[in-house]
Amino acid sequence: MPLSGTTADVQPFYGYVDTTEDALRLIEAARRGVLPRVTRRFNELERRSMIRSGAVFVFSVEESGIKRWTEGLTWSQSRISGNFLIYREVADRNILRSSHQVSDSSDGSQSGHPVESHITLKPNGLIKKASTITVKINGSDHHLISYFTQEDVHSGRLHRPTSRSDLMALKIPAELLQSANFRYPLKLDGQRIGISQL
């Protein structure tokens, strides 16, 4: 299995990552073994079954060997939203490949200069939300990638980490916050983390 510690008691989080706090909480849960981590690249069968709306993946660069996250889908140009990059699934892969309008990485790098008006988004296609935060834990860089559709979010089918008591019981340690490189800084409010400009 490409996920560490996946058992009846340790299952991947399925839902929606809305805020930076959500992302940090899931990264901390994966670090503690409450949620599994991705330990290697997915093969083609795993990609087809696991890359879907509601899927959330946390991986360590050193543990997984994944320096650049790819899953074989075709995406629009990235858009910055707080501490995240947002990509939308594109319908016609061949046209985009020939005009250099594709990014399949989580770090926002593109080849060429995308022209958004020329792309065709896939109807009810996936949206990829990649955290721009790099969290360094014990010398290892951790990243988070999530997938969803607008329909699933608006219908309430996907729930945030706040819906799970085991995740909300986790306290995000100060060293995790200090090790993260935030595009938009966080404000600390007692024991709770408030998100600024997100």
UniProtKB/TrEMBL annotation:
GO MF, one example: DNA binding
Alphabetical list of InterPro entries matching this protein: Gti1/Pac2 (IPR018608)
Compositionally biased spans, kind Low complexity: 98-113
Pfam families for the chain: Gti1_Pac2
Location of the region described as Disordered in the Swiss-Prot/TrEMBL record: 98-121
Protein name per UniProt: Gti1/Pac2 family-domain-containing protein
